[in-house]
Design brief:
- The protein is mostly helical and 134 residues long.
- It folds into two domains: 11-61; 65-134.
- 74% of the residues lie in helices and 0% in strands.
- The protein has helices spanning 3-10, 35-56, 65-133.
């Protein structure tokens, strides 16, 4: 018998403290029952729901070493996933910024090359005029 089984067998949960009549309650309606019977059934259903919530809210037994490792691995995997997701988001943001900057620089470079070409043509024309005059 392992530790968890012993703990589960010896620990008292809220479900163990319930009266024995709780398990035998039936929510089936008897044909021909009056309004009082309907209210009794409704109270029984409320008690059953309360019992279910007590059982669901009971504290789990302390985790074993293997379970601790599994939980730690899950937590680490989750943080790694979130870190990777954030990194990918940051890289996409940087990519779009750099693509925009690259387009701006290409446009500026093209404009400067056109200015240089026009200035070269103008300089050649002025030199030709200067040579023609002399």
């Amino acid at each position: 018998m392992n530790k968890n089984t012993c703990l589960a067998a010896t620990s008292a949960s809220p479900c163990d403290k319930l009266p024995p009549s709780c398990g035998s309650m039936s929510s089936d309606k008897v044909v021909g029952e009056n309004d009082t019977g309907d209210r009794a059934i409704s109270r029984r259903e409320d008690e059953i729901q309360t019992v279910d919530s007590l059982c669901a809210s009971s504290a789990p037994p302390p985790p074993s070493g293997k379970l601790k490792r599994i939980l730690a691995n899950r937590e680490h995997a989750k943080t790694s996933y979130l870190r990777k997701k954030k990194s990918l988001k940051d890289l996409k943001k940087r990519l779009f910024f750099l693509l925009g900057e690259n387009k701006t620089l290409k446009d500026e470079n093209e404009r400067i090359r056109e200015d240089i070409r026009l200035l070269d043509e103008k300089a050649v024309r002025e030199n030709m005029q200067f040579l023609v005059i002399f």
